[in-house]
Amino acid sequence: MSSSVQVKEVVLITPSEPTPTQVLHLSALDSQLFLRFTIEYLLVFKSRNGLDKNATTARVKSALARALVPYYPLAGRVRARTGGVSGLEVLCRAQGAFFVEAVSDHSLSEFEGAPRYVTQWRKLLSSYVSDVPKGAPLLVVQLTWLADGGATLGVGFSHCMCDGIGSAEFLNSFAELATGKRGHTEFKPKPIWDRHLLDPSPFLPTQPNSVSHPEFNRVPDLSGFVSRFSQGRLIPTSFTFDKRRLNDLKKLANSKSRLNESSSFTSFEVLSAHIWRSWARALNLPSNQVLKLLFSINIRNRMNPSVPSGYYGNAFVLGCARTSMKDLTEKGLGYAAELMKRAKERVNEQYVREVVEMVSSSQASPDSVGVLVLSQWSRLGLDRVDFGLGRPVQVGPICCDRYCLMLPVYDQKDAVKVMVAVPTSVVDKYDSLIRSTNS
Mind telling me which residue stretches traverse the membrane in this protein (predicted)? Predict the structure, then answer.
């Protein structure tokens, strides 16, 4: 029997104090075509004895109104820039964010693994962000009370407004307001707009070489790859790697690598490589199919001067590891981890400037053929968000789809949960491969 969610209230929350009425330009990175979707978080909280649900709901609503004072652009609306200029801008008139309160017969234990199907938890963020350039709210928050006394907080951000780091900073500040730990004039870090820093105008003109930006190159679809993911049914999967398993992967990768001892792999590099190889081997693609692993690289400290603390816009570019199906599956974990490391090392200030120029001048966008997109949520601080309900015992997406997520694990600082949906026909093989750390 499927679980139900009943919406009790939908209300528009506006800033609790007057905020500037103005038009703010989004950066070239914010305006990228491939970022015109929603970041959707699902935070799951255990029940707490003596909790007053009505008082908690009122406190969260009040905190959201106060958070939208320093973060007032999140209460605005996005539109295309006027005057024939490409890109997006935010019209700030305190239009507000949506807040939803709901009740559900979902129970806490359901969120320990993957959902049974991609959209099983969709109604835990029922008023989700869509059609942002057409005037939809940029932020939606839904507090849902579970049947066993627990709660979920579903949050949707328009990705053109903020990246993972920026959205997590907002959530932690919002939560501190709800618990009274801090006032909105005391936010740390203080939210900073400064989107001009990642526009092409301050940069000298460049002639980017597309060979050095394989994330934007198109490759042939030799295997019906796109139709397998767009038309076939996908099954969500979840697997947790504890510290021991991660160390096993590191040992295996380092033993088969050409790197010297001082350049050993990080946990992120080896786990990403293992996921990528398991995914590719399960799909059983033609040996000459070009495959890419795309992953976000934070550029805040890769610029000179660095992007200031509190900048909550999109301050990342895509790292791209690229190889053939044959090499990825036959050359082993160390080879794949080296590709990851090299992709990270390529990203310097010049690389970022080239990306800014490309997405601004030609609206360059990543291909989808042969691509696995991986996003690391495990280091964002989402596991610290506390609205007076305690820290979340589960952090994940509203919908588990073809994008692979690395997630934090409650009370296991060094562990990582991996969630991704794969085609029905390969789910058993993928599950077997991802659990094996000796191949």
Answer: none
Q: What are phi and psi of 343, to 5 degrees?
A: -65, -40
Q: What is the largest CA-CA distance in the chain?
A: 63
Helix or strand (DSSP H, E) at 430: helix 427-435
> What is the residue type of 128?
Y
Kindly give, in sequence order, each residue whose CB lies less than 8 Å from that of residue 393, ignoring residues fewer than 6 positions away. Answer: 44, 45, 46, 108, 410
CA distances for 260 relative to 144, 254, 263, 327, angstroms? 51, 9, 6, 22
Indicate which residues carry an active-site annotation: 159, 386
**Distance, CA of 290 to CA of 279 (rounded, Å):** 14
Backbone phi, then psi, for 376, in 5-degree steps? -95, 100
CA distances from 349 to 301, 303, 343 (A): 9, 5, 14
User: Which is nearest to 292 in space by CA: 370, 349, 225?
Assistant: 370
- 229 residue type, one letter: F
Predicted TM-score of the model (pTM): 0.94
- For residue 416, what is the enclosing H or E element? strand 412-423
CA–CA dist 342, 322 (Å, integer): 10
Burial 153-177 (b: 16+ CB within 10 A, else e): bbbbbbbbbbbbbbbbbbbbbbbbb
| Per-residue model confidence as pLDDT tens digits over 219-252 | 999 989 988 888 889 999 999 999 999 999 999 9
**Cβ distance 157 to 76 under 8 Å?**
no
Q: How far apart are CA 167 and CA 155, in angstroms?
A: 10
Give the span between the Cα atoms of 40 and 302, in whole angstroms.
Answer: 27
Q: CA-to-CA distance for 187 and 182, rounded, in angstroms?
A: 7
DSSP letters along 194-226, please?
A: -GGGGSSTTSPP----GGG-GGG-----SS-HH
Q: Using CA atoms, how far apart are residues 160 and 27, in angstroms rounded to an integer? A: 9
Please work out, in degrees rounded to the nearest 5, the angle formed at the alpha carbon of residue 287 by the alpha carbons of 286 and 293.
90
Residue indicated by tokens 């990306």: 355
pLDDT digits (tens, 9 = 90+) for 352-407: 999 999 998 878 889 899 999 999 999 999 999 999 999 999 999 999 999 999 99
Q: How far apart (Å, rounded) are the C-alpha atoms in residues 351 and 144?
A: 43
Burial of 260 from C-beta contacts in 10 A (0-12 / 13-18 / 19+) = exposed
